[in-house]
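Database export, one record per block. Field names are fixed; values are copied verbatim from the stored entry.
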Amino acid sequence: MSVPKEQSEVSSISYREAVAILIDQAYFHVYILFLPCAVLTFVAAVPQATQLILDLQSLARDSGHPVPLLIAIDQENGGVNTLYDGAYMRQFPSAMAVATTGDKQLARRIARATAEELTSCGINWVLGPVLDVLTNARNQPLGVRSYGDDPAIVSAFGYEAIKGLQEGDVATCGKHFPSYGNLEFFGAPTDVPTITDSLENLSQNALVPFRHAIAGGINAIMVGGVAMSSDHINVMHACLSEQICRDLLRTEMKFGGIVVSECLEMEALSRNIGISGGTVMAFKAGCDIILTCRSMSVQEEAINGLTAGLENGMIEKGRVQESVKRVLSLKDKYTSWEKAFSPPGLDNLDCLRYTNSNLSSTAYNNTVRVVRDQKKYLPLSDVMRPEDELLLLTPLVKPLPGSAASKQSSEEILEEPVSFRTTHVTDGTLMAGEKVFQKLGQALAIYRNGKVLHASYTANGIRPQHEALLERASAVVVITADAGRNKYQAAFAKHIAMLCRIHENLPGRPSEKPCVVAAVSSPFDFASDMSIGTYICTFDFTDTALQTLVKVLHDESRSADTKTRNSTNHKRRKHSQARQQWLVEHYRDDRDRAALDALLLTSAAAAPPGSSLLRVATAASFLLSSDVIDEAHFVVRNSSTKELIGFCATYYSHHDSVGSIGAIVVHPSRRHQSVGHSLHHRAIRALLQKPGLHLLELGTRLPNLFPGLPSDDPEEHRKLSQWFSKLGWTPYQTKTVLRLSIPDLSHWEAPDGLGKSLAMREIKYDLVHGTEYTDSIMEHVKLNAGTDLQVLYKIALSNKEGCAVVRGKNASDGSIIATVLLYRQQSKLALFVPCMRNADSLAGGVGSTVVSTNVEDKASLLQGLMLLGVRQLKKQGISSLLLDYVDDPSALPGLQRMGFTVLNTFETIQNLAEDWDTFEKT
């Protein structure tokens, strides 16, 4: 999209040649108007999209273009992700969901992460953010794409999104000027909607975010195709109006960037004006770039119309030059041939995966809202027995275009394996749940380890099958998706809630059947309807949002909001202070070692059988004595009896700027007396005094006793999460850490064909040990890993008899690209993996994998390292094997195929140090 080639001094690329290339791409659609700009809309795999963009840029260069193409895309997050590929890109919440957190920095971080993923594919322009103020939520198509109904909030969050996208090196385009937030629909559904607000009212509300965006340096603004009808203004289509584009946006609001039109192929606009005429009118009105987004014939019609306008003098050359200058200015800032032909690519997406996955998880954990829970039905585990059946009722809706389910929408719905223990209902009237909600049912069944009955509902209302399922179930979850516009959903949910209220339950059980309604699109479905007593909002129904919903349904640590918030004044929760302040002292090994050993034994003995990792811990487990990691441990003790009442371990890495709480242990007889609170408060104060501290985390890799909160027991994990949440831990980032094992190595055999398939790759594996290999291995580790792993590798290389290193090397130049440590139970390294003490004397360990960031096939490389390592340990007579740390869930299937099973699961939680603003640093 731009201006004619003869005026822009850009050589013409063969239009049909470009389109022919696009037609060959079977998995997505790409729409071009006037090269050298392109707007892309994908439902595709990222590798294909990246290659297509590269092909387009190659066509442009080979045709003589002096500057690259602008590649634009709709990527608003939530339900509007035009380019989606779960293998490479993360899902983030919608605009309204982010605004409910009150955390403007979260909006900025999400926007920057989105931009970094898109630039990896070669995309340099996002048609966003949405800056509409949702002043009328009734019957509005915009919904959760808006940040909300307050101009100040939309302005603030819109500004942060703009800055985040620009920091990620993509151009921005605010939309939909002057506003889609208060539309009236007077005619047929295909008629253009109308803005009836006066310009004065618009100026005081809807235009405020656009003014802030202009002041903040937004690159472009899209003008909508809506009609406008009020005093002093009568416009058929805003994007074709000089009064809107030129007088209001350019002159009055002093916007000097690019003006983009709404797509001229919207039915009412093309029917009323025609594509050729609309193109000329849009350009004359002040649009620099005109969108046509569906068919080649329409795009050719638009080009012919613009050419005719130039030839007959309707469009002046000076006006063309203005647009050329603006487009080339934007290209100069965000494009170059180097960027076009050397995008960060799939390797960078792989590097971003962990950070962005944690950001996605954190964002959804903080955006899914419990609006109210009048009867305290949450968590469901408190009102249901394990043998009870849970009924899930979901509407028949189309999958969101940005979700993985959208790719599977045409597939036949299959029943899940019996292990999921779900039941689907199917007959001529009541259909099985769609793919978009099928995973929700599976996740609910797995999470509660019980039976879930899943049925769909339609505008036909409650059928006999629903009533039969309702009779069987002990609790009900009803899903609605934009019930404000789909009235049948509202009626269905309210009817189910009424039946639950009057339902007679078994003796000794609640008189009402628990009913939870979850709105997975608009939060306004039942925002003020008190007949829905337990109400949750997710703001979208992507896979990630629904997985978070499962956690909320079972996790009472989620705090219930009395309403859906929409305020920029949200502040971090004040950290709880201990009701009783205990004297906390520094741990002294000469004084406290024996007492700490006794405390650990007592605490382990009081725990349920098999549930406490403290059974394998001693005082020595927490003492690193490292020259690169500071450790400070604290105790609450009885100075008369010398008994320890509580213990807390902390560590700080100057190199990584991360402070960690490794464990908090309280004597069983002194729990619930604020001992743990006092220890935690002292530990946080000590860590905050560390110069350069950036992150605080729960869990440590070194020593490897508690890499995070233990998650094997869901109930225990829930209690721990709730306890730390009350102390102020609101996750900035979280990650799941696994500990795996091969319990009987004597009977282990490598999977058929694995060794042969790995041998065919351009990687050589070998086993080394001893200090003579220190320099080369440590150079690799320092370049690709943190301080904790550097310490472990130094210990391993200095312990030749008990440890070894498996190396993966590039066959062409011999450079090290991956390493993993092997160790025996008697080695020095095993001292820092206390659970090795719980094994027999013939136990061995493998772990501390370090892989170069530029490696493409990390899964195969990890398998190669493990294959050689496991074979070597088995050859040495090792009977059982521990893999002590895995933080990449995608690696689990391959490891399980090799014979590893999950031993322990942990959740590491990180907070920004700057968030702990209620603690004194002195």
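Remark 1: The domain at 585-717 is CATH 3.40.630.30 (Aminopeptidase).
Remark 2: The two ends are 59 Å apart (CA to CA).
End of record.
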